[in-house]
Each structure stands twice: as C-alpha cells, then as structure tokens.
Amino acid sequence: MGFSFKIAPGVRVRASSRGVRTSVGPRAARIHVGAGRAGISTGAGPVGAYTSLGGGRRPKGMSGQTPTAGRQAAQGEGQAAATALHQNDDRHRARFAPVERPVLGPPDPPDEGEIRRCHERAALQGIGRFQHAARTKAKHQAAVSAAAEVKDEWDQRRARGSAFRTLLTLGGRGYAPMTTTWSCRRS
To answer: How far apart are CA 179 and CA 185, in angstroms?
Structure first.
C-alpha cells in the first residue's frame, strides 16, 4: 500500500512498494512516468482510459531471459502447480459412513391397566357399594369392553406403524415419531 500527494495543480506523485510514479496534466490528458511503464490516460466523468507507451522495467528475476522464455517458465510452473493440485484433490474431503435408512420398531403397547380401570369406573358409576350382583355384572361388561378397546388400540397402532414403514420404504422425508396418546372412551 502506498501514498499519494499533490505537488502542484495537475502534478501528483505516488509512492508504493513498486516505486515512485508521477502523473502530470489535467484529467482529460494525463501523462504517467516513473516506476513501471510510461503511459497516457484520459477521462471524462465516470469513464476513463489508460494505455502504456512501452519501455519500463522488467520484473525481478527475468533480467537475463527473453520475454518468451519468461512466459514459458511461468507456464511450466503453472502446469506443475496444476498437477500438484490434482494429486492432492481428495485430501480435504472427509470420509463419512454410508447412510442407513431408519428402522421403525414395533409400536408401544397400549396401557391395558389404565384402559381397564377407565372402563370399570364408567361401568360402576351410579351403582351402590352394597349391590354386589350389579357390580359384578358391570365389572364383567367393563372387562369385555376394555379387552375390545385394547384390541382396537393395538390394530390402530399397527396400522399407523405400517403407514410409517411404507413412508420410510418409499423414501419419504416427513418422518415423525410414532407417539400415540390414549384417552378414555366411555362406552
């Protein structure tokens, strides 16, 4: 990075790591001399143009070579760099284990005890403590209806599991965990 300062109207000096360069003239017709090649620039508004006049210095390290020999050397270096790059192409890539499809296990069993208790509570509602025959009959009916509801719940969970397995087999992306909530259905 360099710096620049104005000596007089139309005269500017720039200093950088490449050397000192002077620009003389108005923006419409400016002459550049110093480090590098001499050139002429012109500009009006946001548009400008620059052309070099030839001459100038050669890059370091190429003082004894002709320009074509320097280009050939640079091309050889570029080809060597490209070859090295292709040889090391895979070194930055991480190796990952192959992806496996998720496996859906069997559905969780329904809570048979909770279903049975819910049906008993519903069946015994309104029957007094000392009506033993009616209570026994209501408990038997509650056990039958609870068993039927447990079977229905198992069938529903298996059907949902089958639908999820089909979705996974077909490669569906909308996998949701199979969670079910049971609520007491009063018969």
So the answer is: 18
Q: Which residues of 151-182 are buried (b: 16+ CB within 10 A; e: fewer)?
A: eebeeebeeebeebeeeeeeeeeeeeebeeee
Query: For every one of its 187 residues, what pLDDT tens digit does the chain have, with 9 covering 90 and above?
Result: 688 888 888 888 888 888 888 888 887 888 888 887 788 888 877 888 888 886 555 555 555 555 576 677 666 777 777 777 666 666 666 677 887 777 777 888 889 999 999 999 999 999 998 999 999 999 999 999 999 999 999 999 888 888 877 777 766 555 455 555 556 665 4
Total number of domains in the chain: 2
Q: Which candidate, 62, 52, 59, 58, places its Cα nearest to that of 32?
A: 52
CB 156 within 8 A of CB 88: no
Q: CB under 8 Å to 82, separation ≥6 — which residues? A: none
Tell me which residue range forms the domain holding 129: 112-169
Residue 67 is assigned to a structural domain of this protein: no
